[in-house]
Amino acid sequence: MSEEALSVTETRESVVDSLAKGKFKRVRRILRELTATEVVELLNQLDPEQQQLVWNQIGDEEEQGILTELDPALAERLLTNSDDHPDTLEPEAEDDEDVSPITQVREALEAGRFKRALKILGKLHPSQAAGLLEALPPAERSSIWSRLDSARAGQILVHLREEVRASLALEMSDSELLDAAHQLDLDDLVDLIQALPFGPGRQLLLSMDVKTRQQLADMLSYPEESAGGLMNIDHISVRADVRVSSILRYLRLLEDLPDHTDKLMVVDRENRYLGVLRLSRLVTSPADGLVSDVMDGDFKALDVLMSSQEVQRQFEDLDMLSAAVTSPDGILLGRITVDDVMDSIREDSERAIMGMAGLDDEADMFAPVLTSTRRRSVWLGCNLITAFLAASVIGQFQGALEQIVALAVLMPVVASMGGIAGSQTLTLVIRGLALGQVDTGNLKVLLVKELGIGTLNGLLWAVLVAVVAFLWFGSLGIGWVIGLAILINLVCAVLAGLLIPLILRRFGIDPALAGSMVLMAVTDVVGFSSFLGLATVFLL
Amino acid sequence: MSEEALSVTETRESVVDSLAKGKFKRVRRILRELTATEVVELLNQLDPEQQQLVWNQIGDEEEQGILTELDPALAERLLTNSDDHPDTLEPEAEDDEDVSPITQVREALEAGRFKRALKILGKLHPSQAAGLLEALPPAERSSIWSRLDSARAGQILVHLREEVRASLALEMSDSELLDAAHQLDLDDLVDLIQALPFGPGRQLLLSMDVKTRQQLADMLSYPEESAGGLMNIDHISVRADVRVSSILRYLRLLEDLPDHTDKLMVVDRENRYLGVLRLSRLVTSPADGLVSDVMDGDFKALDVLMSSQEVQRQFEDLDMLSAAVTSPDGILLGRITVDDVMDSIREDSERAIMGMAGLDDEADMFAPVLTSTRRRSVWLGCNLITAFLAASVIGQFQGALEQIVALAVLMPVVASMGGIAGSQTLTLVIRGLALGQVDTGNLKVLLVKELGIGTLNGLLWAVLVAVVAFLWFGSLGIGWVIGLAILINLVCAVLAGLLIPLILRRFGIDPALAGSMVLMAVTDVVGFSSFLGLATVFLL
């Protein structure tokens, strides 16, 4: 739909039509094209109800200009009934602190009070606003999203999870998206383009000016999970043979430095990285010194292809606020700041926890039911395979089960104790591997220790469970068999908990994701077969 | 044992005795008391083997002084056979990159090459060295620890997990510990004191000078998991009515600023917090301006009692590098820097993942087997209760199990599918609660959505499992019953996954810790009882 200049009548008809259909976004688009005088003219041609609806679509900035030209009586009526007018708020909204922002926004949206909803959102930091939007059902999310101005939308986009980000970005018109994108730092822009489907992403890329496009293309060429994917190019670089006083003069000309500038990068004539000049050093240095005298020449740069895990570890170990990123031949490419590293740590930890349940941390909590069902069914399918594996093991011992029904009653106890004991070792080893604290150098010591724990806990619980089983079913044989089975399963579980992550890693599979399911298969199979097998041998 | 000045003969006897007993630490302590000349005198009285052993105990710094006074032939022999001499390294040690530091250190220790082991450790950053120490079995850990000088030991202590930290600190003599403690920042010192048992911790506190002790006592009064527990007091504060040029002059006098200083704190005459002056702003401001003109007055301080989770969120949301901490009445108390926040995020994420398996993230990976067994048995005991709960449910249906053995074979499938489906919802809700994205405001929407997913996945897998069960056992009845049971269990599991974390939180229990075990109890009970119950009704 092209938004050509419409005549007054056409405008009025178009607005009335849109109001009737509830297309408020279209109304706002029309209003944006009009001068204050034209809006007043339009308002005067509408009935009171339509007037109020139109009024609620007018932004805070435009309100003042229109009010001055409006009939005072009408102005007062509109203001009094406006959806963000204090008088129209229900009394309970006053104890705002007890009501969460989610509830507040949803109540406002339900009552059609868009201005009020926007105001609540406006009070939040963009990342908090992003969190709030994610917590809204998709329809409400879109409804409030379409009312945000582009600058704010851009700031919020950066902080959204990938799936929500892509879907909201696609709801924007090309020009809105472009406006929003222009508010972003290059690294955030890279993230946005990567989150979009190929077509719109490419279009956004092409709409940038040549220089930005070149820089974006460079940055897009690095893997997301690498130093290149985390870096930004807003650093300030200086030469080593310059005086401190000149640097200070130069900085004063800039008036403001890029966010998170704690150090300047020192380079040579070919832009080769030489070291850093800390601001804290700069302000304490004599003005007539040379940069080369006060710079830190031994502050290591990060290679652009370093993995993001390694970047995280470097930042944590060396307590860095920012670090230079260089190409393999030492050319300064950009810098990584600690805020992005912190986000990356948080994302990885979320991914790990969600991944253990077979969930995607970047997914929309309110994705359509069918989409979510399909995603989750994958993990259920994997589990079904291991469940049938366990069932087939039990199936081997139908004879024993037919004769002694107590076996069927007790067998889940054996399997579940093994599962818990194994998952403890598994968790310990997965963390050890991630931190580099478990490797061939100390594997044997760990193995001995874990086997010791498995055996001791095995003995402890074997005795206890044996006693309970004996008391329950009055059979000494069942007590012996279940005790022995628990001991066997706990020792095997500990062994499996230690070996499974090592084996999975050898095959390039993340043990944090698949480890617990594989472990469960092992402990089920060992638990059922040892218990039912021993029973077959000794009790039949 | 008091280390009074000993005569030459006494010294020699004492050294020979200690060497024979393998008490190298004692040898080093004796050596430290001697001048270079006395060491040479001592060496000359020993046999070649003893000479070499003593030599290996001498620190790098003292070596040079002793070498000049030593008989050249003896000096050369000692150096050639020294345990860090390149010639004595096995050839494969050259491809250091393939061999992990853990292996390298352990091999060196095993061969008695302590100097070499110390050198490997010396190349690492303190936090990496701490990680390496944690990865060593306790005996080797102590052996290398006793050889570290106090300064280095202090830096490493900070980065150790609590349990390892406390045990290594207790291995040090009082004076060594005090030496090490003097290297630490106040916030690290607070952590160390908190990690020690009450007695030694108090002793360490009392050994500080009056001012430090007062500051420590203040900081110890805040909960560990609060802004007060994360803060340090090394900030620089300035007054608002001073000129920028004076600040620059003042900073130049300091020569170096505290680590991670990206901003100065602006206070009034009563030390009340007014705002911050960023270094990046300072270096770009005209020198004749006032601090009040260039400071950020709207940069919020954190309340000293704010929870560490909230501090993390603020740092992440507002991308801060440091923030002021104030008392409730606005007095500046200290500042929190992003490196400590990052550590706190990492620790919380580790605690969450370890906690899910009932493990303590601060525990020593190589704690004595009995200690570890006792700790882990708690979780196994909790699990045993739920396992017997499930068993008792099965026990209700012994009649059905006796008649149809296929029920015993298939029942774990029903329970485990419910467990997986429930854990997906549980994980989603726990994350949502932690991020504030799930609350009463959107609970109903989420409930409807999750029930939808549970029903759809329930139908999908019910059909599949029913078909498999029918093909396996040739009974249409069993197919119907297991299908229905799976549908029921998946819907209940989703409901439980949603409600359990909410209920646990209401009772003040962390849902991340106890959630999955409670869920498992529910899905087992519902799974077994629905499957066996339906079978009893329809198949008997």
Radius of gyration of chain A: 32 Å
- What would the CATH topology of the largest domain in chain A be? MgtE N-terminal fold
Query: Which two chains have the most extensive interface, and how many residues on each?
Result: A-B, 123 and 122 residues
**What would the principal axes of the Cα set say about the shape of chain A?**
flat
* CATH A-level architecture of the largest domain in chain A: Alpha Horseshoe
Quote the beta fraction of chain A.
Answer: 5-15%
The number of helical segments of chain A is 28
Q: Could you report the average pLDDT of chain A, rounded to the nearest whole number?
A: 89
Number of strands of chain A: 6
Poorly predicted residue ranges of chain A: 87-95
Q: Report, as a whole number of angstroms, the end-to-end distance of chain A.
A: 82 Å
- Specify the structural class of chain A: mainly alpha
Share of residues in helices of chain A:
55-70%
- CATH class assignment of the largest domain in chain A: Mainly Alpha
Q: Could you name the CATH homologous superfamily of the largest domain in chain A?
A: MgtE N-terminal domain-like
**Widest beta sheet: strand line-up of chain A:** 1-2-3
Fill in the keyword field for this structure.
homodimer; 540 residues; mainly alpha; MgtE N-terminal fold; CBS-domain; Tetracycline Repressor, domain 2; 3 domains; three-stranded mixed β-sheet; 28 helices; CBS domain (chains A, B); SLC41_membr_dom_sf (chains A, B); Mg_transptr_MgtE_intracell_dom (chains A, B)
